[in-house]
Design goal:
12 strands, eight-stranded parallel barrel, globular, 11 helices, 42% helix, TIM Barrel
Length: 360
């Protein structure tokens, strides 16, 4: 099913797939997934599942809010495409979920730098398997911390593979670039090891901001380079900052584009730091993607992790009648509200982009 949204007047305009992370990252039973199904449906969000086995995917698919709309599936993080078992796992997912998913996402590997020919050969084998299954695209996600140019070169090399393409993770690319720039200013230092409470951190703030401001131009460059190949492009959208300690899983990204990093002191007249992108940076990423590829070749997935807030369950209390303590239900409700807020930012940019194109 093609996604559309209202344009000028009553004319509908094409819209890329807009998905979000659909899973339980908060303790509780399947009532949390039922709540997610409701909120995703209300927001018009598609789904990206995390599943380690085809059986787990089968289970999660029953909660998909839009049964007719293909989903994306993020496979286990340690999957090795150089290993025969890893490639078989990908093939199994493609066969079991035929017609129900449009993309499988796997992390890239550092072996791309050391075993380039073997890695591209493995991708070639996977491409043949996926074509034989009339299967989904395999999106290789930027995640291992490769030099971004090496990541782009990989896809130039495998441009002819019909079912293999790239997944740009905005948080991973941005953090990598911030670390690279900061290490050039302060050799041997990792900006991600700095905390806002560290002694003397205020003296480093200008250099930290300089490093963080390099994230957006680098991300846009990677988007343009990969879009120039003319193949489908999947983007994991989330914000971050090297100094952030807010994530419950201990990483510096996977944040909402509406967040900020609180400071225990004042810097540039504020007691907080802007993130790598913010709403304006997200708008630039979305617009650059749509300016270089048609909407049917772009998919956006909000990979934002749960925050620390809570929102009371209003129109779905029946889902939790069997819960005596609804704290985690309210935490889940907050997370889902954050995803919906960020979805609106993407949709707003899509609408503005198409409005601009129509007025030209």
């Amino acid at each position: 099913m093609k996604r559309t949204m209202p344009g000028k007047g009553k004319k509908a305009v094409p819209c890329p797939r807009i998905l979000a992370l659909f899973q339980k990252r908060i303790d509780g039973d399947d009532a949390l997934l039922q709540l997610a199904r409701l909120r995703f449906s209300q927001a018009g969000l598609g789904t990206e599942f995390y599943a380690e086995t085809p059986e787990e995917l089968d289970y999660l698919l029953q909660f998909k809010p839009h049964p007719e709309t293909p989903a994306a599936v993020h496979l286990k993080r340690g999957l090795d495409v150089l290993d025969t078992g890893g490639r078989t796992n990908i093939s199994d997912f493609a066969a079991r979920a035929r017609g129900r998913i449009f993309g499988l996402v796997v992390h890239d590997q550092m072996e791309i730098s050391t075993q380039f020919d073997a890695y591209t050969k493995a991708l070639g084998e996977l491409d043949l398997l996926l074509q034989a299954e009339n299967g989904p695209h395999l999106f290789i996600e930027y995640a291992a911390g490769l030099d971004t140019e090496a990541f782009v070169d990989l896809f130039r090399k495998v441009r002819g593979l019909e079912n293999v393409s790239a997944c740009i993770d905005t948080g991973h690319v941005g953090i990598w670039k911030a670390r690279e720039v900061f290490s050039q200013i302060h050799p041997g230092s990792d900006v991600c090891n700095i905390r806002t409470s560290d002694p003397g951190v205020s003296d480093l703030m200008e250099d930290i901001v300089c490093a963080v401001e390099a994230a957006l131009p680098e991300t846009l460059r990677v988007v343009r380079e990969l879009a120039a190949l003319g193949k489908p492009l999947h983007l994991h959208l989330h914000d971050g900052h090297p100094l952030s300690a807010a994530n419950p899983f201990g990483v510096s990204d996977h944040m909402s584009f509406l967040d900020a990093v609180p400071l225990p002191f004042e810097f540039r007249g504020k007691e907080s730091l802007d993130l790598m992108y913010g709403p304006s940076g997200l708008s630039s990423i979305v617009s650059t993607s749509l300016g270089n590829l048609t909407p049917d070749k772009v998919s956006f997935s909000l990979e934002i992790h749960p925050g620390r807030g809570r929102i009371p369950i209003d129109n779905a209390p029946h889902l939790f009648d069997h819960w005596s303590d609804r704290t985690n239900a309210e935490r889940m409700n907050f997370w889902l509200a954050v995803l919906a807020q960020n979805e609106k930012l993407i949709e707003q940019t899509c609408r503005q982009f198409h409005g601009h194109q129509e007025s030209r």
